[in-house]
Amino acid sequence: MKNKSAHPGIGKRLRAIRERLGESQAVFAACFGLNRGNIDSCERERADLPTGLIGQLIELGINAEWLINGRGARYRSPIAEESAANIISDTGLLKGINP
Q1: 62 C-beta neighbours (distance < 10 Å), count
Q2: pLDDT by residue (tens digit) across 16-66?
Q3: Closest C-alpha among 47, 56, 65 to residue 88
Q4: Would you give the DSSP letter of residue 75?
Q5: Is residue 67 part of a domain?
Q6: Is residue 79 part of a domain?
């Protein structure tokens, strides 16, 4: 299937974030108000990432330049990776969600 993403490689980077958090597509999607199919399509670059998801990932400490263009570090700062996981855990985004 032809790549429909405006940003080649963004799907692989989204998958890397999800896998780093150790979550299934269904749980990860539910955390951001999406369904598993949305995340699957984005990871396969059959669809662009929703703007809201990009914004939420950036708020969690993901480096926008890395997410969109694959340049730079994955996280905005050395502590952002730990902070992102803690924010998700502390706010309960990943707790209690059963796909």
Answers
A1: 23
A2: 999 988 889 998 999 899 999 999 999 999 999 999 999 999 988 899 999
A3: 56
A4: B
A5: yes
A6: yes
